[in-house]
Amino acid sequence: MAYLAETANPHQKAAQAPIAVLLCNLGTPEAPTASALRPYLKQFLSDPRVVEVPRLLWWVILRLFILPFRPRASAKLYKQIWTENGSPLLKISRQQQSALQDRLDAHFGAGQYQVHLAMNYGKPSFSDELAEIRKQFSDQVIVLPLYPQYCGATTASAFDALSKELRKQRWVPSLRFINGYHDHPFYIAALKASLLKDFEKNGQPQKLIISYHGTPKSYLEKGDPYYCFCMKTSRLLAEALGLSGEQYESCFQSRFGKQEWLQPYTDIRLEQLPEEGTKDVAVICPGFSADCLETLEEIAVENRDTFLHAGGESYRYIPCLNQEAEHINFLAALVQENGFSERRKSQNTMAVVVA
Ligand SMILES: C=CC1=C(C)c2cc3[nH]c(cc4nc(cc5[nH]c(cc1n2)c(C)c5CCC(=O)O)C(CCC(=O)O)=C4C)c(C)c3C=C
Ligand SMILES: [Fe+2]
Ligand SMILES: [Fe+2]
């Protein structure tokens, strides 16, 4: 294998280079059309971390039963949430990148950190972003997948995409890989602040529904900690808000395929709740750091219809933390906690202030 060539004496330039912060998220299609959805879904659903079905069998299923149909159906959904600036997931991720850059510059001085963004599927790719990091001679990289609850299908996929690129490099940088933050006190505090803001404006709902993206149940049975991390986030959030067991429940959305996924299913619960006497709910999705198709369409539109048709009276969706100040402050604190500051010449030990 021919490793990527380095420019002359990169180590001399590295001493002055910024620490790279690489934010990672899932990725999104380039347009809300079937022709843009096809390569996106093909790349996404071919990832063995996402779909753990024997490769040959899955190759046939994907090509015969999924790729001929799903792109058109998904494109219809994406059309409903698409903005002038493209996909919400990419737009919000860019806003997070720039807000975090501002926050780190304000606290540590310009040039100390450079925030990058890479997506697992589609663009900006890990390949392009790692090329940019090399161009800036950063030999210290903090990788921050924006998935609060570790999951093999997401966090480990980001790790795979990163290592696939790094193994081409002659000079591999120092790395910190943040594999999750489901119980970080500042993350819980940011979620609490967002909920309290909503409760102050709209009143406390009869029940808070805490909905996470699902995975096949078999991943839990094979030892993936995602389910337990989701439950812990919910418990800590409920404790922080002083909610009793009857005032909240956790559930799992976005099923795909025929096998059993993590339960209870969000859509089924929303259909049952009015019959059980719960007619007023607020829904929050703390497993998503940025709003996307799964929150803006599935939760805010589809599941609202389900609940109201089943006899529910009041349904509101509370947006993700997105580029909220509390969220960005928390991410800055996470970067600092996992940082390389002890090796920097211009040490700045000032703590990032988290509201
Ligand atoms: C096929 C299996 C899937 C698993 C397992 C899975 C896990 C998983 N996904 C997210 C976050 C997101 N998923 C998004 C979209 C999406 N997810 C799947 C399938 C699986 N996800 C598909 C096929 C799609 C595409 C849309 C569709 O056709 O339904 C998104 C939104 C992307 C966007 O562009 O807005 C996110 C984010 C997590 C956190 C997770 C496991 C924990
Ligand atoms: Fe997904
Ligand atoms: Fe969905």
From TrEMBL:
Keyword vocabulary terms for this entry: Cytoplasm, Heme biosynthesis, Iron, Lyase, Metal-binding, Porphyrin biosynthesis
Protein's pathway: Porphyrin-containing compound metabolism; protoheme biosynthesis; protoheme from protoporphyrin-IX: step 1/1
Gene Ontology annotations for the cellular component aspect, listed alphabetically: cytoplasm
Catalytic activity, EC: 4.98.1.1
Cell compartment(s), UniProt: Cytoplasm
An MF annotation (GO) of this entry: ferrochelatase activity
Pfam annotation, one family: Ferrochelatase
Annotated function: Catalyzes the ferrous insertion into protoporphyrin IX.
Protein name: Ferrochelatase
Annotated source species: Pseudoteredinibacter isoporae
